TrEMBL record:
It comes from the Bacteria. Residues 1-48 are annotated as: Disordered. The lineage of its organism: Bacteria, Bacillati, Actinomycetota, Actinomycetes, Micrococcales. Belongs to the thioredoxin family. This is Tetratricopeptide repeat protein. The keyword Glycosyltransferase does not apply.
Length: 330
């Protein structure tokens, strides 16, 4: 189902009048027409064969710089990763998207959007939950996916996106120091090494096998209970595992059909946290805690405490909710 998009964002000139249905990357442009090159390019032609120098294949984008980056969608598909610092699923997905982007060696450009700092872009793309990943091809939006997805699926979607771009005549390339192998490559900061004890769990999560990742992280913690990094990763992959294979509509429908179904209500709370609706999740569980008997309260309390860890102990919303939980307990 298509979603209407605003025709312009504040200060911008890219046409976002229609957001195509999910999956259109496999079938063609949103309305079946060839995207036109945005105004302001060197010669107002399509992106066929153009090579454009960029600082990096992964760029931070703001409300103010969106127009400049969006114009590059006449040369290569530009993928927008809408994220926030407090979003735990974003922390899983973003490194995967960055890695896959670099694998395409300049045929895709990644634009990262902090939705808290850039509300204009969040509104323009109608990001109802995050992470949200949308592409522009010739100035036209192509929704890709929401939520953390396995790396293999990200790679497949990117491949379909490049095929769509080729069908629309967007066959250029961007070049950046990160693309070209050379003497400067050694100057790039090395990625932090993954501790050997964590490797199996990290690899399982990256391939989307969340059940295996949960088991691996639990094994790590059994040997090293004080491993804070392992604990943080465990609660995150447990959340992803609980949501795996379930749709938002099915989760919400089950909870609405039976307000007394504790598991159904816990499922909606998981969904809300994963989608960035943290306050809604905490309020739901606090109200549920107050309304249930002692036996059911245990399950609600345990889920609340786990979601507190997912969001982060220092988050103001966690601090407030933890205070309310303490009042209900004592």
């Amino acid at each position: 189902m298509s979603q209407q998009m605003p025709e312009r964002i504040p200060g911008g000139g890219i046409d976002l009048s229609h957001l195509a249905a999910r999956g259109s990357a496999a079938s063609g442009a949103p309305d079946g027409t060839r995207p036109s090159a945005p105004a302001g390019g060197a010669d107002d032609r399509s992106g066929a064969g153009q090579i454009v120098d960029v600082p990096d294949l992964v760029l931070d984008v703001t409300d103010a710089t969106f127009e400049q980056i969006a114009q590059l969608s006449a040369v290569v598909p530009v993928v927008f990763d809408l994220w926030a610092e407090w979003c735990e699923p974003c922390k899983t997905l973003s490194p995967v998207i960055e890695r896959v982007t670099r694998e395409f060696s300049g045929r895709v450009l990644l634009a990262k959007v902090d939705v808290d700092a850039n509300p204009g872009l969040a509104q323009a793309f109608q990001a109802q939950s995050i992470p949200t990943v949308v592409a522009l091809v010739g100035g036209r939006p192509v929704p890709l996916f929401q939520g953390a997805v396995p790396e293999a699926q990200v790679r497949e979607v990117f491949g379909q996106l490049v095929q769509l771009a080729e069908q629309q005549g967007v066959v250029g390339r961007v070049e950046a120091p990160s693309v070209d192998a050379g003497d400067d490559e050694g100057d790039a900061p090395a990625e932090p090494a993954i501790p050997p004890a964590h490797l199996a769990a990290v690899e399982a999560a990256e391939r989307g096998d969340y059940a295996a990742a949960v088991a691996e992280w639990e094994s790590v913690l059994a040997k090293a209970p004080a491993d804070a990094e392992a604990r943080a990763a465990l609660v995150q992959v447990k959340l992803l595992h609980r949501l795996e294979g379930r749709t938002a509509d099915a989760i919400r429908s089950a909870a609405a059909a039976d307000p007394g179904d504790i598991e159904a209500q816990l499922g909606v709370a998981d969904l809300d946290v994963a989608g960035g609706h943290v306050e809604d999740a905490f309020l739901r569980l606090l109200e549920l805690f107050a309304a249930t008997d002692a036996e059911q309260r245990t399950a609600v309390r345990e889920r609340l405490l786990e979601l507190f860890e997912v969001v982060g102990a220092a988050d103001p919303r966690v601090i407030a909710a933890r205070g309310r939980l303490a009042n209900l307990l004592y």
